[in-house]
Write a structure and sequence with these properties.
With about 220 residues, the protein is an alpha/beta fold. The chain contains eight helices and six strands; from the N terminus they run αααββαβββαβααα. Bound molecules: zinc ion.
Length: about 220
């Protein structure tokens, strides 16, 4: 049976139902988000908290937004590592080189841009790698409303630097506040995917940050 016929039979009892349905449909059409949401792409909530480089200030190629999914908001955050030794990211040039390689790799995999929203280097500097106006591409089947933050290094065998842990903690806390995300919705990749990522040493730091209140974190940052 044709669905249109079905609906006409179902609402045959009253025109009020039909006009109400038509109104609701028009309302939904107007609520479809723009491809780029200016509020979600705004990073100023991080100002004064962490030092970051905007994507447009380092990336050599533009994102392919036509194959990316517009985000409508965020309710969880997932932490990752690269799985490569920290020695590869000893200075800013090697970090830029690593980011360029990840960008090329993720574009070749049709992610449209780097899959994570931010990458944190061993010196504690954060690099924006994907606009938050678009959903990430960092956990298979779990990218909806999920911010992706990756720390450069292999934390199954090495320790993240103090600078990386401090930036991750402050950034995640600011994101939780900005998007009203509860701390129990902060995950290591291994929590929601089949992976060792973000490595046992970084995973311990993720658990630590989840146990701290926002006031504790702000107090630690002041010291
Ligand atoms: Zn991961």
């Amino acid at each position: 049976m044709n669905i249109g016929m079905d609906r006409r039979v179902f609402i045959a009892g009253g025109m009020a139902v039909l006009s109400g349905f038509a109104f609701a449909k028009r309302g939904l059409a107007q609520d479809v988000p723009e491809k780029v949401n200016p509020d979600l792409s705004d990073l100023t909530f991080l100002d004064g908290t962490v030092s970051y480089v905007k994507r447009d200030d380092w990336a050599s190629i533009k994102p392919q937004v036509s194959i990316m999914t517009a985000a409508t908001g965020y309710d969880r955050i997932t932490i990752h590592h690269t799985g490569e030794s920290q020695k590869s990211f000893a200075d800013e040039n090697s970090v830029r080189f690593a980011l360029d390689n990840i960008l090329t790799d993720h574009c070749n995999r049709n992610f449209g841009d780097i899959g994570y929203h931010f990458v944190i280097a061993p010196d504690g500097k954060a690099w924006q790698t994907r606009s938050m106006a678009y959903e990430g591409a960092h956990v298979l089947g779990q990218n909806s409303s999920n911010l992706g933050v990756m720390l450069l290094g292999n934390f199954e065998s090495n320790q993240p630097t103090d600078g990386q842990v401090s930036t991750m903690t402050l950034m995640v806390d600011s994101m939780c506040e900005h998007f009203s995300i509860k701390k129990h919705r902060v995950f290591g990749h291994r929590d929601i995917g089949h992976s060792l990522c973000p490595g046992r040493n970084l995973y311990e730091e993720v658990l630590k940050l989840k146990s701290l209140s926002s006031d504790d974190i702000k107090e630690m940052a002041r010291k």
